[in-house]
Amino acid sequence: MTLPQDGLWYKDAIIYQVHVRTFRDSNGDGIGDFRGLAEKLDYLQELGITALWLMPFFPSPLRDDGYDIADYRSVHPSYGTLDDFKSFLAAAHERGIRVIVEMVLNHTSDQHPWFQESRSSRDNPRRDWYVWSDTDAKYKGVRIIFLDTETSNWARDPVSKSYYWHRFFSHQPDLNYDNPEVREEMWSVMQFWLEMGVDGFRLDAVPYLIEREGTSCENLPETHAVLKELRSRVDKHFPGRMLLAEANQWPADLRPYFGNGDEFHMAFHFPVMPRMFMSVQLEDRKPIMDILQQTPAIPDQCQWCLFLRNHDELTLEMVTDIERDYMYDTYAGDKAMRLNLGIRRRLAPLLDNDRRRVELMTGMLMSLPGTPIIYYGDEIGMGDNVHLGDRNGVRTPMQWDGGWNAGFSAADPENLYSPLILNPVYGYTAVNVYSQKRSGHSLLAWMKRIISARKSTQVFGRGSIEFLHPANHRVLAYVRQLKNETVLVVNNLSSSAQAVELDLRRYKGNILVEMFGRNIFPRIGELPYLLTMGPYQFFWFRLRRI
Amino acid sequence: MDLLVGVPTHNNARTVGETVQGIRVGLLKYFPRERAVILNLDAGSKDSTREVVAAASINDVQRSADLYALRTLPCISMVYGDSPATEVALRTVLAAAELLRAKACAIVSPESTNITPDWMERLLRPVHRDNFDLVTPVYRRHKFDGLLLRNLIYPMTRALYAKRVREPYGVEFAFSGRFCSHLLEMQVWDHDAGGVGTELRMTIAAIAGGFRLYQTFLGTKPHLDRTADLVAAIRQTVGTLFWSAEPNFQYWSGNRGTESVPTSGAEYDLTTEPIRVNRKRLYQLFGSGVGELEPVLKSILSPQTLEEIQAIATLSEENFRYPHELWVKTAYEFASSYHKSVINRDHIIQALAPLYRGKVYTFLVENRDASGEEVEANVEDLCLTFERLKPYLLDLWNAGE
Q1: By the 8 A CB rule, do B127 and B35 touch?
Q2: With an 8 Å Cβ cutoff, are A322 and B68 in contact?
Q3: Which residues of A174-183 are buried (b: 16+ CB within 10 A; e: fewer)?
Q4: Residue ranges of chain B whose CB lies within 8 Å of a chain A CB
Q5: Host H or E run for residue A359
Q6: Nearest beta carbon to residue A286 from set B33, B65, B69
Q7: What domains can you pick out in chain B, each with its CATH number?
Q8: Is A24 left (phi over 0), alpha (psi -120 to 50) or beta?
């Protein structure tokens, strides 16, 4: 089935982020694959998600979990074949689930044939496909992103006896986007997958495509020009497909990635994410409100992507030093949890496995303006293992049941690509899909309900937002509006019961209909509207004039 | 709440904005993670005081590398009456602090335009982080400033309560939630001290209650001419000191000597730039007071002390001196007479005013060309005289009991 390519499907989407390796192993080799992922599409359909974001599945030496790509037009043999992917894609589309593929534009693996050629000789036709220099003196002062492992953005190549530029690991040389051949080739790569039917790309590390002396080598106008060119080609040849930017920047610096609606369709709102965690811990709405009030308006057809956690560390790049220290102290007291400038923990452990806080954070994820992304496993409250190195602790096998290898694989446990989570709190015998499907009160059941509530109206994905300013700063309240639909969202960020009076005089005469139970709350009058809320409770109210 | 900062106001529109901003900056800089609130208690200001406070508090969205608010910093303004009443304002702060379960509270004068951000750290850190219960200020003063404090209140409080608290009634101070609860339970509010008497009562309550005291240096105290308010000032301070001696008799009668209070920054600091003081007027008021109040003074003072005072009242202006020992005996006899209510207590307090003027005249003359260290040595000498003669007070107090 070909899904309708209506222009703004991504605004209504509920995206589920998953690495094929982690989800389900169909052939017993200990590694998840596309056939296994296809087996679990019914689960995902039942959950209610409408789009899958697949992390890189291309051939790769896997020194950076697949973000070091060695072949852009194939599938890593551990995950299956290209035909397996095509079958999976068709099955996803049949269930109304779109597929977004991760595409790493900025760099390749040093094992990619392009780099092998490029390094072999200064005269090689692909020499200029990468950024070479005889010294490491160029682009001084440009920040290092992987602080824990890299000491420079230049690496000396012993083969060509010169330096190559890498913004990430040293085994990930940056492609040279000043070279039109590189741009043509990367468009050709994207075209390959678009013709197959993928619905969009999450483009990794886009701020770093172009370098210029005397700059930060990030967010340069020339980079935007490259991206605009790609977008125009997508629109021309594959209308309705979506481009999602991964650009970890302040909102004002992110804005250019939307252009005038002619660059990216979507971009991650990185700065709001740590502030959601901060607000819940501080029991104060200020961090969230501050960052959203500083967030610039974006073109109507564009969309922010919101997320709580993902495959990377919970990044603290886009916070102040005071905020970073606070986050480290409150969420990563054990230094083993800290990596680069972030915290490598999953959602449930970050929130101390407090169901109420998980629900509150998910409620905000689903109701703040943007498209929500759920990281695989967070729908059942999976835990993490900070001792697995790098960010592998948040990339452990999906926990399907309490049996052999958590139902992930028939392989011997020693052959799994990663150990399972075993402890009594988060281990697979305690936290798994099968157990949670048996209870109507499990986190999984609740996630289905909130996704359903979210999908019941377009106001969350497409509507405006207006913050209310009740005197009680422990309550975050806002009104979402789209045409005649108005939804009031009230969140108690505090661990204790709160009373809040809301100035709703603008909506006088409306009754409030609570969206989960569909019960009617008193009509709005002249006086401040009083709500009393339990710890971490939130309300979604539809306003109705009856 | 972790921190509560109270700012009592009455027609302070000219200065309070700067004060509130200083408080905000201090809280953001030194206590960025703490839950704090600024509480403005207004006594029915007729100018734009409350609007100025609100304007100084709005716009939480401040961003700079070293000044960033993690949390909302609310500023609540309320009217507690239609005229200034220090006691009511302070009690309201105490009640709010208890309601909010504030761990540390500070009071800042709305006229403190010399406030610097580190005032918040100096006032609140000893309470919030080091578990002290009352933090009193130490200021850099002009050598001729705070005369009542240096010539009577400080030395006598020190002698009675055995703690060297330089400013037992500062307009800026801080206290713990623990001490706050204690004060609310006490009957300290029975006596209408008014003005700074309330702060003095707090300090005495802290000492007598065994709470941990701390002193913190807050910089320069602007010189203010309060000579016109002398009787009111004596009523508030000396009246409170005398009144407090009764319920705390068991405490102060049993101790000897004095001990220092932990202090950050200077224990004292004096400036010596020239200022105009009308010494002649003081001398004249002393003399006329001694004469006109003789019947009253006869009821209060011992015959010997009165005779000595009358003798020095005959001296010429250039020879007139009110010696430390005579002054101390004067003060103690007044205290004892107050305790025994030999006449109306307010009359006793008022009768002290001319005698105090004589002592101030002596202080000004003796320290006219003195350095800061010399002035401080003079004050210390007076303090030691108060301590040495404390048994005299006890004898007076207990006579006829």
Answers
A1: no
A2: yes
A3: bbbbebeebb
A4: 32-33, 35, 60-61, 63, 65, 68-72, 74
A5: helix A355-367
A6: B69
A7: 3-271 (3.90.550.10), 279-398 (no CATH)
A8: beta
Q: How confident is the model over B69-107, as pLDDT tens digits?
A: 889 999 999 998 888 888 888 889 999 999 999 999 999
What CA–CA distance (Å, rounded) separates A101 from A53? 6
The domains found in chain A, sorted by start residue, are 9-105+180-455 (3.20.20.80), 113-165 (3.90.400.10), 463-544 (2.60.40.1180)
Mean pLDDT over A449-465 rounds to: 96
Enclosing H/E stretch for A54: strand A51-54
B304 closest CA partner among B342, B332, B269: B332
Residue with tokens 């139902």: A407
Closest alpha carbon to A56 in A85, A28, A29, A83: A85
| Predicted ipTM of the assembly | 0.77
Mean pLDDT for A370-393 is: 95
Q: Which helix (H) or strand (E) holds A16?
A: strand A15-18
- Contact between A473 and B63 using a beta-carbon 8 Å cutoff: no
Distance from the Cα of residue A539 to its chain's centroid: 25
Strand order of the β-sheet with A314-315 is: A314-315, A342-343, A338-339
Angle at CA of residue B309, ends B303 and B310, nearest 5°: 85
Q: Which DSSP letter does residue A70 get?
A: S
> Across the interface, which of A293, A294, A326 has its CB nearest the CB of B70?
A326
Q: Which residue has the higher pLDDT, B262 or B56?
A: B262
Query: A29 pLDDT exceeds 60?
Result: yes
> What does the pLDDT look like over B295-339, one tens digit per residue?
999 999 999 999 999 999 999 999 999 999 999 999 999 999 999
Per 3-state DSSP, chain B is made up of helix, strand and coil in percentages (nearest 5) of 55, 15, 35
**Active-site option among A246, A263, A359, A390:** A246
Asked if residue A236 has pLDDT above 80, the reply is yes
Q: A252 is written with which tokens?
A: 């004002």
Largest CA distance in chain A: 79
CB contact under 8 A, B70 and A293: no
Q: Tell if the CB–CB gap between B74 and A322 is shorter than 8 Å.
A: no
Amino acid at A12: D
Residue B61 confidence (pLDDT) above 70 = no
What residue in B sits closest to A469 (Cα-Cα)?
A: B72
Instruction: Determine how many CB atoms are found less than 10 A away from the CB of residue B353.
Output: 18
Q: Is A378 a catalytic residue?
A: no
The pair of three-digit structure tokens given for residue B303, joined into one six-digit string: 């015959």
